[in-house]
Amino acid sequence: METLTDTLIERMDKLAQQADNAPREWGSPHLSTTPTSIAIQELAKEIEALQSAVGEIALEVQKLSAQD
User: Fold this and answer.
1) Residues of the domain holding 68
2) Rounded to two decimals, what is the model's pTM?
3) Which of 17, 43, 59, 67 could serve as a FRET partner for 52 with CA atoms 20 to 30 Å apart?
């Protein structure tokens, strides 16, 4: 049986892999030829996803600390 820690680590690894494997094509905020306005929109989406992930982790940590 997996522990909650293992599950959180796996979820973060999955998010990191998705970011690393994102195609570097036109419209990617990591490509220098992408127009600034589009890059900003895409980076905002990435930030929202990260905020959501951090929020989930914070809730799980809070639940764990309440159990002790």
Assistant:
1) 37-68
2) 0.63
3) 67
Q: Which of 51, 57, 49 is nearest to 5 (CA)?
A: 57
Tens of pLDDT along 13-52?
Answer: 777 776 666 667 777 887 888 899 998 998 898 888 888 8
**How far apart, in whole angstroms, are the C-alpha atoms of residue 39 and residue 30?**
8
In a domain, 50, yes or no: yes
Q: How many domains does the chain have?
A: 1
CB burial string 18-52: b at 16+ within 10 A, e below = eeeeeeeeeeebeeeebeeeebeebeeeeeeeeee
* Residue 9 is assigned to a structural domain of this protein: no
